[in-house]
Amino acid sequence: MPYETIRKPALAEFRKRPNLAKWEEARASFSWESIEKECAGLPGGGLNKAHECIDRHVAEGRGSKPALIWESKEGKVETFTFADLKRETDRIAAALRGLGVRKGDRVFVFLERVPELYFTVFGALKAGAVAGPLFSAFGPEAVVDRLGDAAAKVLVTSTALLDRVRAVRKDLPALETVLVTNRARSSWKPEKGERSFEETVGAAPDRFEIERTGPEDFSIMHYTSGTTGKPKGAAHVHRAILGHRHTARICLDLHEDDLYWCTADPGWVTGTSYGMFGPWSLGVTQVVTEAGFDAARWYETLQRHRVTVWYTAPTAIRMLMKQGADLPRKYDFGALRFCASVGEPLNPEAIVWGGEAMDRVFHDNWWQTETGCIQISNYASMDVKPGSMGRPIPGTEAAIVDEEGKELPAGKEGNLVLRPGWPSMFRTYWNKKEMYDSRFRKGWYFSGDRASRDAEGYFWFVGRADDVINTAGHLVGPFEVESALVAHPAVAEAAVIGKPDPERFEIVKAFVSLRQGHEPSESLRKEITQFVRTRLAAHAYPREIDFLPGLPKTRSGKIMRRLLKARELGLPEGDTSTLEE
């Protein structure tokens, strides 16, 4: 059904927000140098994200201000000021230095959403290391792929996740030390190379001079999956803080007196760019909850903490929609003035539902792990066109082009591209320079997404240009899932596709051919599903499995996922001239 543009109130009703009437003027006059001047910089020169997000606030007299309000699964609340964050991150940086961590070394974090995760990321940055947060639902294979590729020197994990690390430790020769947190105070016996996080950090001094990092030194990397091969590490630099600061202000409308809640896990780029760097670079207080999704609990969190700005995902919004409109009407969202969404395109129905059920409009935006920060956004002062990702931020040039890099007119579908050079742009795929270089052609960064642009400059997502599956906002590469499937003794071949799903945008669907001696059955389907779930992240396992006598392949032996998807969805099969007879 068509949706009308949602008209926003007069600009006077917003405070310090972008003026849509002067949009082109703002783009023309903007410069990244102006944002760079807002950064404090390291004493004596240099730039470090940890200093911009923590130490500068202490130095400028905001040390007593709450930075992190953390709520455990049991509902226990702990509050940490910026001074607390400085002390804890200094200790971790000193502890890492004592373990031999030097500038450029990789320190990975495999933790639940607990304060130690946040402390460790910034402690690693202070030590000059490259931080690598991992999603706590990852299985052993996902962990070894990422730590092995990055040659991680230190890993911080918990007693609850330690078994997954131990299962692959022998395959990680570069990993010298595993620091184990024990919030649960469970009994565990350290094995070779393992040390207590609490004891190691507790014995370190609480003052540390930040490593003199420069704007182009690596700071953090997130692994993102593709259609072939292993996950690839998109590495970002300290200068990315300019993009985080700029977009947190203009896209999320954050101000220093806000109470902000980002529901994304730090294992994904949203959980660092906008669950750490963006808000804290502006001195904003934020809420972090350890518990997973629960509609009533989420509404209660918004009400109890009087959240003013909320950044979440379309999947979560659709899950809230499933609970109906009556539930949110039981809560008071009087403090909440801005809601935003990212992960996959936000369907128009969700935007309309937000207005009807919560009296709040969700503002969709678009960016990627590789872009590091929001690139296209629906702003607080903009009229919202439900289904659109919005308009490019000042400082970003976005376009729709053909395969030759030629810009296409409004209304035409093509490749969504960006002009390289923004500060938060990734600088490499770790150990994969050729793959990195392939993303830049004809003076553009090719995002891999297909989109269109209307006459008013709003961009509209069409779909992925490759086979990556976007499930609940997480990108899943077919190769990872297929490899896990084939590891099962009954599976001969496997192929996976993304199947449209009303709640998750897409689900992972697998097609499997069995080895001789095995017959399709419901019990085998359940066994294979459980087998894969133990090896991959919780979102990556196939939610549907079909058994086939054989998989369609080209004459060169390449499985034709495109053909499987077309048949699944009842779409035209296209050119099948290379199909193996």
Would you write up a description of this structure?
28% of the residues lie in helices and 23% in strands. The protein has 581 residues and is an alpha/beta fold. Strands 2-1-11-10-12-13-14-15-16 form a nine-stranded mixed sheet. Strands 4-3-5-6-7 form a five-stranded parallel sheet, with helices on both faces. Helix 3 crosses helix 4 and helix 3 (49-59) packs parallel to helix 10. The longest helix is centred in the N-terminal third of the chain and has 17 residues, at 82-98.
Short description:
This protein is α/β, with parallel strands linked by helices and 581 residues long. It has 2 domains: 34-451, 3-Layer(aba) Sandwich (Rossmann fold); 469-569, 2-Layer Sandwich (GMP Synthetase, Chain A, domain 3). It contains 17 helices and 27 strands.
Q: How are the SSEs placed, and which strands pair?
A:
Blueprint: H1 23-29, H2 32-38, H3 49-59, E1 66-71, E2 77-81, H4 82-98, E3 106-110, H5 115-126, E4 130-134, H6 140-150, E5 154-158, H7 162-166, E6 177-181, E7 194-196, H8 197-202, E8 218-224, E9 232-237, H9 241-250, E10 259-262, H10 269-281, E11 285-289, H11 295-304, E12 309-312, H12 314-322, E13 338-341, H13 348-358, E14 362-366, E15 376-377, E16 391-392, E17 398-401, E18 414-418, E19 428-429, H14 433-437, E20 440-441, E21 444-453, E22 459-464, E23 469-471, E24 474-476, H15 478-486, E25 491-501, E26 505-514, H16 522-533, E27 544-547, H17 561-569
Parallel strand pairs: 1-11, 3-4, 3-5, 5-6, 6-7, 10-11, 10-12, 12-13, 13-14, 26-27
Antiparallel strand pairs: 1-2, 8-9, 9-19, 14-15, 15-16, 17-18, 18-21, 20-21, 21-22, 23-24, 25-26
